[in-house]
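User: My instructor asked us to take a sequence, write out its structure as tokens, and then describe one feature of it. I'm not sure where to start. Here is the sequence I was given:
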Amino acid sequence: MPRLILFNKPYDVLSQFTDSNGRATLADFIPVKAVYPAGRLDRDSEGLLLLTDDGRLQKQVSDPRHKMAKTYWVQVEGEISDEALTSLRNGVSLKDGKTLPAEASRIHDPDLWARNPPIRERKNIPTSWLALTIREGRNRQVRRMTAATGFPTLRLVRVGIGPWSVDNLAPGEFREITLTPRDLRDLQEKLVRN
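Assistant: Let's start with the prediction itself. The structure tokens for your sequence are:
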């Protein structure tokens, strides 16, 4: 059976097991051998990261051709406008081309763990939160998308990948789940339909 680990990656942790510069890595939190990240999450982002020992599953999760949904809660500078949300839903033009349409909606401040260090706050500039679901994985894509609409990202938390979520995992915690052959077939069918 393939191993699948759900990990709530804290801020300022690299999505890899080694680093020659002494920065925090997955090895500081996950003592499991022979598992590898399925995709990545930037050092300055938080939330769900999947790890597996199965190359096929790793490719299904991380390869943009499979268009697996990735959901983020994004805190942006300013009160997100209807126009910005419409732009995100229609696809945003970036230097490397237009993004696929995203699911985007305003949300109330989510009940999240405190970030260490906290985001910078400015007294005269409000912030707002949105839920954003994308089906591709360009470098720093969510941050570039919100910036292109005029709302720079202050905090980025990935809360879901496909059918998996970060629910009930504190930062730095992980949970291993067992995937049955049926789970893998169901996942494959969902990816084919998308």
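For the description part of your assignment, you could build on this observation: The domain at 69-161 is CATH 3.30.70.1560 (Alpha-Beta Plaits). Try explaining in your own words what that tells you about the chain.
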